[in-house]
Amino acid sequence: MSDVPSPNFKPFAKSKKKRNIPVQIVQESKFPDWLAKQDKALQALCAERGFKAKSGKGLVHVDKDGKAQRIYFGINDSVSYTDGALICEFIEGYFSEELLETISFSFEVKSPCKISEPIFERLYIGFGLCCYSFTKYKKKKATTKPKLVLDKDFKINTKRIETIVSSICLVRDLVNIPANEMHPQALEKVAKALADEHKAVFKSVVDNDLIKKNFPLIYTVGKASENRPRLIEINWGKKTHPKITLVGKGVCFDTGGLDIKPSQLMLTMKKDMGGAAHVLALAHLIIALKLPVNLQVLVPAVENSISGNAFRSSDILKSRKGLTIEVGNTDAEGRLILADALTYACEGKPEIIIDYATLTGSARIAVGYDLPALFSNRDETLDEVRNISKMAGDPVWPLPLWQPYKKDLDSSIADISSTGGKAGASTAALFMQSFIDNAIEWIHMDVYAWEQNGKPGRPKGGADTGLLAIFAFLEKRYGQKQ
């Protein structure tokens, strides 16, 4: 495929243009004190326009010639990435596209409200995310977005901001590209480009070599497609550093197999490689921001297609671990390919394994579209990740690995069934836990990877959930902010 996505989305300006309009952030709780320090003209303008620095509300102050001189924008005490996106939307709605081509904007460093650097970091990130649009297949490209300057006068890490924005937009690109272009070999090409960019070690096991090297489940799930299955691997970092392994479900399209999905449910199945998109983006964050870890990334990449040699419900499959599996439903294919990848991950004895997968509709019923379902074989890890996720502005929600439910996976003719029971998200996680060495800490993220309707800074389509939460968790454990 041409135009392979890479984490190179750059929405920010490096320097101010000849005409630059400052944006002053005003906290609603401090608005009365702030207003009292302004001149009478600005006080009158605030009164006339009803500006009280409420979250998401902006005010443009013009000069005597009617040209915008300064923008005031309100936030409350709890600032999210959405606030930055709302600033971008306000500017885009006020100024003409022609004018946006010639001017820049910058946050005002000296503000009577004394906004902290972490708040500005979130505002920058939200603003950058609002500049994203997916127009790869449109003749008419996106409208001009406002250019915000990453001001060096702030005590902020501009590389960190740019890396976070580009990583999230990489997830969006990978999920948004349809399966006729983002097939297993194309996903491999993206992973290789990422590895090459960061001077990491790349390798892949493709097609019949999966059988030779004992990845039978990955091969079996993907064998019905002309786009051949593969296991993609990236390794980076010093061997003396703590080893962590990321595993991402890479089902580039899921028909459901012989247990075929209804057509309306198949429309978004290009996103079934959303787990792979998340771990590639997380790898980019870890490497670009130089987290001191020994990183392994594993992506089993397949298409769950239909042909005469497709695997069937009731088939008995042998896994890399040696456990036999009775296939309960061919539409529960993600857990099968992850079983082989997780087994392989455990063989490397990492400190922690983290997987992302668009795994179950049950997780969406339990926690909805915005919250990823979090599982772990360590209760303290559940608490830690959940608490960090709130602070990171990327909340996740724990669901139980309730061991009594494992009996729902009993099979009369195999070691384990791939499906069973009412608690679908939990039983899927329990199935995957069967392939985890319990001495190794494990986190499983059941994500949706899709924005249903569109929100400020979060357009409809491919979306990240739990990406920044897990990065914040790893950053706290393994290193300080760079």
Q: What can you tell me about this protein's structure?
A:
It is built from 16 helices and 20 strands. The protein is an alpha/beta fold and 482 residues long. It folds into two domains: 12-153, 3-Layer(aba) Sandwich (Leucine Aminopeptidase, subunit E, domain 1); 161-478, Aminopeptidase, CATH 3.40.630. Strands 7, 8, 9, 10, 11, 14, 15, 16 and 18 form a nine-stranded mixed sheet that branches. Strand 15 (373-376), helix 14 and strand 16 (397-398) form a beta-alpha-beta unit. The protein is elongated, with a radius of gyration of 24 Å. The mean pLDDT is 94.
User: What is the domain tally?
Assistant: 2
Uncertain regions spanning at least 5 consecutive residues: none
Helix content: 25-40%
Shape: elongated
Largest sheet data: 9 strands, mixed
Structural class: alpha/beta
Observed structural traits:
482 residues; alpha/beta; Leucine Aminopeptidase, subunit E, domain 1; Aminopeptidase; 2 domains; nine-stranded mixed sheet; four-stranded mixed sheet; 16 helices; elongated
Task: Please provide a brief summary of the model.
The chain has helices spanning 31-36, 40-49, 81-94, 97-100, 117-130, 158-176, 184-197, 208-212, 216-222, 263-266, 274-288, 334-347, 361-367, 379-391, 424-433, 467-478; strands at residues 12-13, 19-27, 58-62, 68-75, 103-107, 148-149, 201-206, 230-236, 243-248, 250-254, 294-304, 316-318, 324-326, 352-357, 373-376, 397-398, 416-417, 441-446, 450-451, 461-462. The chain has 482 residues and is of the alpha/beta class. β12 and β13 form a beta hairpin.
